[in-house]
Specification:
Shape: globular
Order of helices and strands: EEHEHH
CATH architecture: 3-Layer(aba) Sandwich
Strand content: 25-35%
CATH class: Alpha Beta
Number of helices: 3
Largest sheet: 3 strands, antiparallel
Number of strands: 3
CATH topology: GIY-YIG endonuclease
CATH superfamily: GIY-YIG endonuclease
Length: 82
């Protein structure tokens, strides 16, 4: 199963990092306020970064690594995707 690590840009300009195995379903959950407590009142969202990994464990490790970055690091990561 493929797992996706993603970064969303919220309407307030903040960045949210998460993982899923179904990005479309997860985005619908975020849009309806059921995706994560952090994103509940920060929509609409724009997907700024995605990275596919082969296992949930690898995705969780990558998510933790991205979450440990400061904002500048996350912005640089997003820019590297372009």
């Amino acid at each position: 199963m493929i797992w996706i690590v993603y970064i969303l840009e919220c309407i307030d300009g903040s960045l949210y990092t998460g993982i899923t195995n179904d990005l479309e379903r997860r985005m619908k959950a975020h849009a309806t306020g059921k995706g994560a407590k952090y994103t509940k009142r920060r929509g609409p969202f724009t997907v700024r970064y995605t990275e596919s990994l082969d296992s949930k464990g690898a995705a969780l490790q990558r998510e933790a690594a991205i979450k440990s970055l400061d904002r500048a690091g996350k912005v640089a990561l997003i820019a590297s995707m372009s």
